[in-house]
Design a protein that fits this description.
Helix content: over 70%
Radius of gyration: 67 Å
Mean pLDDT: 77
Order of helices and strands: HHHH
Number of helices: 4
Distance between the termini: 147 Å
Strand content: under 5%
Structural class: mainly alpha
Largest sheet: none
Shape: rod-shaped
Low-confidence stretches: 21-26
Number of strands: 0
Length: about 200
Amino acid sequence: MSSQNSAALQNQGINQSESKHESAIDLEGLDHLFKWASEMVAEGEDNRVRQTRDKRVRREVLEVVQQARESKVVTEALDEASYLQRRVIALLQKMTEVTEENAAIKQIMVSQYYTLQRIPYLETQVKQMRTLEFERDAAVTERRYLMDALAKLKTERDLLDDMVTCCESENVRVAKLFQEAKLEVETLKAKRWWHNLVPRSWIA
């Protein structure tokens, strides 16, 4: 902004110096014209009349020149004002963009602030998740041990089932032998001493 202001001031100074130079040239040319017109018209006239007419003409011409200068100055001022208006509009647009960028940056900073506020809670959650992970690993290891123990128990159960089956078969065989022995004991109890002398076919 300072460089632009300095450039505008330099341009204004240059324009003023140029306008002064042009006005000086215009006045010098007018003086020459006034002198020439006075010499052409003033043949045989009174000096006072000639001076009065010269003053009146000079005043009228200077008024015309002054009006032209004023119109020129007004035009230049209008051009300068339109240029300044364009510059102001551009600056306002730039300020609007900067304001929007600042608002976006503030929003980002607020979100970052709330995110930073949540960091301790997130760290606690991470610790809890790590603890749960360790517990899960321990549970998986314990389950593996239990599955191995269950497999051993199933093997032992199958072995016990086989042993129970064998025992039941043996019990049936022993019961049958016991029944046969009992029948034989009863037969022996019912037998008399003289039965040994008589053939069994007779006893039957």
